[in-house]
Design goal:
- The chain is α/β, with parallel strands linked by helices.
- It folds into two domains: 185 residues, Rossmann fold; 126 residues, Rossmann fold (3-Layer(aba) Sandwich), CATH 3.40.50.920.
- The protein has twelve helices and 14 strands.
- The strands form three sheets. A seven-stranded mixed sheet has the order 3-2-4-5-7-6-12, with helices on both faces.
- Helix 2 links the parallel strand 2 and strand 3.
- Helix 3 runs parallel beside helix 4 and helix 9 crosses helix 10.
Length: 338
């Protein structure tokens, strides 16, 4: 009888520390390598590497036919991307700031979002529009807006906003591989705020699955994108006071993880919804409606929302406008004291 050697354990996944902008760059690089139909383009994304250097080095590696600059025309960028999709390509278009999306709005909502439906499934629009979003960098009115709610209102679009390097890479790779148009909002104040270990092997993160950042039983805090570090800080302050908060990062808004949200709020009976977009017609209003519709008789307190103010983004009052830990804690106190 021949003795068999014990089976060797599989090697641990290789990881390397990346910040959010590096994770986005790596996701595009891997997808350019994987699929020759993937193209990356936008204003200054070629030799310059984009205003935030998200595409740095990609043109040098893949050439100017796959990574290239465009004119300063968002309508043209989006319109060209739609045409590329019909020809079988997978464009990743960068809009330099989310505030600049509006010239391309008609192309996004009237063309990209509707091609699959108006053609009876004959054509698809597998495009990704990447764009830096939100405040926190003293960009003022035209470089700090959070317009995601405009696009969550449009059937046919997927809407994503990651808050960590790991999520940014996995969600962007998933977005590039989908057959539907994806609005990929990147919280620019988190681009270089921290690093985490990100796998070097291929992985994707499915849409519609929230991340539970902290488990608790007393109150649920829900956010997405740039507010998440402040949500975590507020949650840690609550824990120091003996309160057990549960923290949910939605990650994707369309689709959003109703099951995770409802399960958490059913457990805690209290919820605070946090985002930096203006309060009126905020996407979190939809989340609040679903919570009260499904869990009205189980709630221990009304839903509380913390958001930006219904004003143009103030250059001089950047930190006042954004929901910080103090505003989140006041909202939590209101809920817990109800």
């Amino acid at each position: 009888m021949t003795m068999q050697s014990p089976e060797k354990p599989s090697a641990a996944p290789v990881r390397k520390p990346l910040n959010l902008i590096q994770a986005i760059n790596e996701a595009m690089r891997e997808e350019l390598l994987r699929d020759p139909n993937v193209l990356v383009f936008g204003e200054d994304v070629g030799k310059r590497g984009g205003v935030f250097l998200a595409t740095e080095g990609l043109q040098a590696e893949f050439g100017n036919k796959r990574v290239f600059d465009t004119p300063l025309s968002e309508a043209s960028i989006v319109g060209a991307a739609v045409g590329m999709c019909i020809r079988g390509l997978r464009p990743v278009a960068e809009i330099q700031f989310a505030d600049y999306l509006y010239p391309g709005f008609d192309q996004i909502v009237s063309q990209a979002a509707k091609i699959r439906y108006r053609s009876g499934g004959g054509f698809y629009c597998p495009m990704v529009i990447r764009t830096p979003s939100g405040g926190g960098v003293r960009g003022g009115n035209h470089h700090s807006q959070s317009p995601e709610a405009y696009f969550t209102h449009t059937p046919g679009l997927k809407v994503v906003m990651p808050s960590t390097p790991y999520d940014a890479k996995g969600l962007l790779k998933e977005a590039i591989r989908l057959d539907d148009p994806v609005m990929f909002f990147e919280p620019k104040r988190l681009y270089r705020s921290f690093k985490e270990d990100v796998p070097t092997e291929d992985y994707t993160i499915p849409f519609g699955k929230a991340a539970i950042r902290m488990e608790g039983s007393d109150i649920t805090l829900i956010g997405y994108g740039g507010v998440m570090p402040d949500v975590i800080k507020a949650a840690e302050a609550l824990k120091a006071e003996g309160i057990q908060p549960e923290v949910i990062d939605l990650r994707t808004l369309i689709p959003w993880d109703r099951e995770a949200v409802l399960a958490s709020v059913a457990k805690t009976g209290r919820v605070v919804l946090i985002s930096e977009a203006p309060r009126t017609s905020n996407f979190m209003g939809e989340v609040a409606y679903v919570i009260q519709e499904e869990l009205f008789d189980q709630m221990l307190a009304p839903v509380v929302q913390v958001a930006g103010f219904d004003t143009p983004y103030p250059y001089a009052l950047d930190k006042v406008y954004l929901p910080g830990p103090n505003r989140i804690l006041r909202a939590a106190a209101k809920s817990l004291g109800y």
